[in-house]
Amino acid sequence: RFFAELGRTRPEQTFAMDDAMNYVLRKPVGVVGLISPWNLPLYLLTWKVAPALLMGNAIVAKPSEITPLTAHRFSELAHEAGLPAGLLNVLHGLGPEVGQPIVEHPRIAAISFTGGTATGRIVAATAAPMFKKLSLELGGKNATVILEDADLDTVVPGVVRAGFLNSGQICLCGSRVLVHASLYDAFVPRFVEAVEAFGIGPVISANHREKVEGYLALALEEGGQILTGGTRGEGTGFHLTPAVIAGLSPESRCATEEIFGPVVTVHAFETEEEALAIANGTEYGLAGSVWTGDPERGRRFAALMDTGMVWVNTWLHRDLRVPFGGVKHSGVGREGGEWSLGFFSEAVNICVADET
C-alpha cells in the first residue's frame, strides 16, 4: 500500500536550464533477484517485491529455506489478485543450490539481499565482478545508549522491547545496553525485573538455540555473569528465556559478535566519549538508540554513531519513506521510499533544447 501510494504521487523530476529542460526517466533494471531471511518472512520479502514491481521489473525471489510457506502463499495470493504470470517467481531451496545461481545468472541485473554478513560477503564477491546493482542489508550488534539525564520510567520498557522483541531475532535489536555509571545500579535491577516479565516466543530452530546457548557458555568463560535467563523454557518450540549478561568487557566476543537471539549485555560508561567508543567499537554499523532527557543532546550523540539508523528516546519507530541500511559490515546501499525506487530502476537523463 505504501509503495502503491508513492508511485501514484511522486512527481516527475525535471531540471530547467536557460535554454533547455532536463527530464529524469526511470527505466526498469530488468530481472532482479530478491533473497530474504527467515526472521520476518513476509515483511522483508514484500519490502523488496513492491518497489521492484512498481518500477517495472520481473522478480526471481528466494525466501529462506526455513520459512518457505509464507513466500509461497504470498505468491499464490499475488497471482490470484491478477499479477501477470512470470513477474513474480519464487524459488525454494538452499543457498548454494538456489541462491548462488540467482546471484550468478547473467540476466539478473540486480540483487537485493537481506541476511547474515558471512553470506553477504559471498553475494558481494559474486555480484561485484559482474557489475550487478547490489543492495546488502546484513548483521548488526546495535548499541542502546542511556545517558545520565534519561528517565528510567521511559527507558526500561523501551530498552526491554529493543533487546527482546521477536526473541531478539531482528537485525535492529539493541543487544548491547550502555548505561551511564550514575544510573547503572538503579537501572540494572529494574531492567532484569522487566525482562523477566516480558513474554517472548521460541527461537527459530534447535540449531539456532544451540548457537545462542554456545554464546551463553562463552559469556561465562569471558568473565560475565548471567543475571537472568538463558535456560530452556517449557512448551512446544525451541524456547530460551531472555538473558541479561553483566561484567563482560565491551571488547569480548559476546559483546561484539552478532548472537541474534534473546541475549543482551549491559555495560557501564563514565563519559559520552567512552560511550561512543564502545558503541562504535564493533565491525557492525546498522542501528542504535540513544535515551536522554534532552532530545537535542540525543540528536548530537546520534550523529556521531557509526550506524545507518539511530532512534532517540524510542526504538523501531519506522517511517517507510526514510533510508534503511547500514555501514561497515552491516551492509551496502539503502532501501526504503525513494531509495528503493532508485535501486530498482536506472535513471536516464533526457535533455531537450528549447526551440530557437
The general outline is globular
Largest sheet: 7 strands, mixed
Write out the strand line-up for the largest beta sheet, numbering strands in chain order.
Answer: 10-11-12-9-8-14-15
Distance between the termini: 45 Å
* Share of β-strand residues: 15-25%
Flag low-confidence runs: none
**SSE string:** HEEEHEHEHEHEEHEHHEEHEHEEHEEEHE
Percent helix: 25-40%
Overall SS class? alpha/beta
Task: Please tally the β strands and state the result.
Answer: 18
CATH superfamily of the largest domain, please? Answer: Aldehyde Dehydrogenase, Chain A, domain 2
What's the CATH topology label of the largest domain? Aldehyde Dehydrogenase, Chain A, domain 2
What does this structure look like?
This protein is 36% helix and 24% strand. By secondary structure, it is α/β, with parallel strands linked by helices. It folds into two domains: 2-138 and 330-353, Aldehyde Dehydrogenase, Chain A, domain 1 (3-Layer(aba) Sandwich); 143-312, 3-Layer(aba) Sandwich (Aldehyde Dehydrogenase, Chain A, domain 2), CATH 3.40.309.10. The strands form four sheets. Strands 10-11-12-9-8-14-15 form a seven-stranded mixed sheet, with helices on both faces.
List the helices and strands and how they pair.
Blueprint: H1 2-9, E1 14-16, E2 20-28, E3 31-35, H2 43-54, E4 58-62, H3 68-80, E5 88-90, H4 95-104, E6 108-114, H5 117-127, E7 133-137, E8 143-146, H6 152-164, E9 176-180, H7 181-197, H8 206-221, E10 225-228, E11 243-246, H9 253-256, E12 263-269, H10 272-279, E13 284-285, E14 287-291, H11 295-303, E15 309-312, E16 327-328, E17 331-332, H12 337-343, E18 345-353
Parallel strand pairs: 3-4, 3-6, 4-5, 6-7, 8-9, 8-14, 9-12, 11-12, 14-15
Antiparallel strand pairs: 1-2, 2-18, 7-17, 10-11, 13-16
